[in-house]
């Protein structure tokens, strides 16, 4: 059996999509930052700041995937898979930090009168929303296909950027249509965006933290495992089961009930048969520890 580490092709796909996101964000930071400065829009500048955090967090995602793909060593006999959800948690914390910074600056701008943003900033934001949504959908699809919490987190970071841009678009539109007296609509939009970013950060953090804590993964594992185990002759039922996710792979502990009059050799053979049946039926499972319980 291979070392317990994420499958190379999965790690490679995750790394490739992450690098694409980094390159796109570098371009967007420059475009949004310059447009926000020239167009007098803090919402657009805040959007650029959010994209800048995308670059940093995407790098951590890439690093997490690289680390998770390393083979086990003496100090990490189960591999380095936990680096993957750790990277997702870094993304979530960075989002919270960016949201706080945006909120503080937005409140300051609301209290200080300023000019209405330039109309051309709307065109910039519209383009950003399209680019970011396309990027989100592409990376989220890869995250689902390779079952990576870090890649999914990276995708949601792009979605939060699209939402930030969308709220900025709405705020600037209100400011331009309303005219004098509505100058702060742009800043209120940035403040609203900071709340959305925090919500998305929780959306990223919760499943990743659960994985770090060896929380049972989503899905009806008990029914699936019982169905598979019961295909093995002389297996009567499942008494206990535990499932945990490490990187892209799953580890299972299973208690199988068999007739009490079987020999040790027969019980051993049944345990191996159950293990092989699960590994064949669920390729994402790396290892299965089967404990035989007499009826």
Keywords:
295 residues, mainly alpha, Alpha-lytic protease prodomain-like, Alpha-Beta Plaits, three-stranded mixed sheet, disordered N terminus
Can you lay out the helices and strands and say which pair or pack?
Elements: H1 8-38, H2 42-68, H3 83-111, H4 120-146, H5 149-178, H6 185-212, H7 221-229, E1 237-246, E2 249-258, H8 264-281, E3 285-294
Parallel strand pairs: 2-3
Antiparallel strand pairs: 1-2
Helix pairs in contact: 1-2, 1-4, 2-3, 2-5, 2-6, 3-5, 3-6, 4-5, 5-6
What is the CATH top level name of the largest domain? Mainly Alpha
Overall pLDDT confidence: 83
CATH superfamily membership of the largest domain, which one? Cation efflux protein transmembrane domain
Residue stretches low in confidence (pLDDT < 50, at least 5 long) are 1-6
CATH architecture of the largest domain: Up-down Bundle
What is the overall silhouette?
elongated
| Strand ordering within the main sheet | 1-2-3
Q: In which range does the helix fraction lie?
A: 55-70%
Number of helices: 8
Oligomeric status of the shown chains?
A: single chain
How much of the sequence lies in strands comes to 5-15%
Structural class of the secondary elements? mainly alpha
Looking at the structure, the CATH topology of the largest domain is Alpha-lytic protease prodomain-like
What does the largest sheet look like? Answer: 3 strands, mixed
- Strand/helix succession: HHHHHHHEEHE
Overall domain count: 2
Number of strands: 3
Radius of gyration: 25 Å
Kindly report how far apart the N and C termini lie: 31 Å
Membrane topology: Multi-pass membrane protein
Main location: membrane
Subcellular location: Membrane
Protein name: Cation transporter
